[in-house]
Amino acid sequence: MRRRHVFTLVALGFTVVLLGWGAVVTSIEAGLAVPDWPTTFDSIDPINPTPDWYKIPPVLAEHGHRLMGMIVGALTLLLAFWTFFADPRPWMKRIGLFALLLVILQGVLGGLRVVWISLDLAVVHACTAQLFFATLVSMAFFTSGSWLRAEGVLIEGEAATRFRRLSVLTAVLLYGQIILGALLRHRGDGVDPMLAGIHMLGAAVVFAMVFMTIKAARQADPEKTLVSKLSHGLAGILTLQIILGFAAYFIILKDIDSMRTTLQVVLNTTHMVVGALFFATTIGLVLLAARKAVPKEETA
User: Fold this and answer.
1) Which residues fall within 8 angstroms of residue 128, CB to CB, at 6 or more apart?
2) Closest-CA residue to 209 (of 158, 184, 255, 175)
3) Phi/psi at 29 (nearest 5 deg)?
């Protein structure tokens, strides 16, 4: 199990790179730098479809993203089969197959976005990427030593129930923020003030929900086990994400009539990647909260 857990973490690492690479593609508007799919410039050679393709920044971004997607797809295929044949838990086998279906869907969505020149599909592609990432995060949790040893299982009661509800609500609201962020990034005609305003309002709501969740985590986990530690990490990531979000927005407003600057690309990409880590941490809290709690009488 430990080797599979490490392999899952490796797949997660490549997925973070893939998410960041995709954010760069969006930030420099290179989504159509390669106009065909599943071929690349009418070539079936994925490594060298055209001479010196890596010397052209937009093509490097777009085709490099495709190559990284192929690597993540291969890792997910291996992980799904490994899980199916090695994990004794039937529900875990299903999660592995679900991850495989998601990564296949991601590849198709990305390709159709190019073929159909669809910004709507670009939004769906971005949102599905986060679901895939959350699925891998779940698989990493379920194969970790702390999960298998049932470390820090909460004591059943009102505090645990409240924490469970708040963590789920926070995850749902945060995914809503991810959808709004995808809509903002993939419009193709600049920043929509209304969407930006809703996104900022949503950030304020998520901010409040996170701190309510942290308070509930403290009450549900007075021993300060993994639940409390993860909830405090969530607060740090939230603070960083809000700073990055405002910085990215104001830089875009400052340079709205000019070409995308390197600072814009870096801020937008970092904001998206930190958002994915934020969502992953929240999913971790949901999973910990969902574990079967210990009845009070067993702790007496």
Assistant:
1) 102, 105, 106, 109
2) 175
3) 55, 50
Does pTM top 0.90 for this prediction?
A: yes
Residue 134 neighbours by CB under 8 Å, 6+ apart: 279, 280, 283
- CA geometry: angle 117, 121, 126, nearest 5 deg: 125
Helices (H), the chain: 2-27, 57-86, 90-115, 119-142, 145-148, 158-185, 193-220, 226-254, 262-290
Average the pLDDT over 203-211 and give the result.
Answer: 91
Strand, helix or coil at 152?
coil
Res. 28: pLDDT tops 80: yes
Q: Among candidates 139, 171, 129, 137, which has minimal Cα distance to 272? A: 129
- Give the separation between CA 18 and CA 129, rounded to whole angstroms: 9
- Inter-CA distances, 184 with 87, 179, 187, 193, 278, Å: 40, 9, 6, 9, 18
Alpha carbon of 161 to those of 50, 158, 171, 227, 298: distances in Å?
Answer: 57, 5, 16, 14, 17
Other Cβ atoms within 10 Å of 240 Cβ, number: 15
Assess contact for 128 and 108: CB atoms under 8 A. Answer: no
What does each C-alpha distance from 99 to 10, 130, 178, 279 come to in angstroms?
15, 12, 19, 17
Q: Closest Cα to residue 32, out of 70, 67, 62?
A: 62
As a whole number of angstroms, the distance between CA 139 and CA 268 comes to 28
Among 5-14, 169-178, 229-238, which is the least confidently predicted range? 229-238
Which two three-digit tokens encode residue 192? 């929509």
Torsion angle, alpha carbons of 116, 120, 126, 127, to 10: -130
Asked if residues 174 and 46 have their Cβ atoms less than 8 Å apart, the reply is no
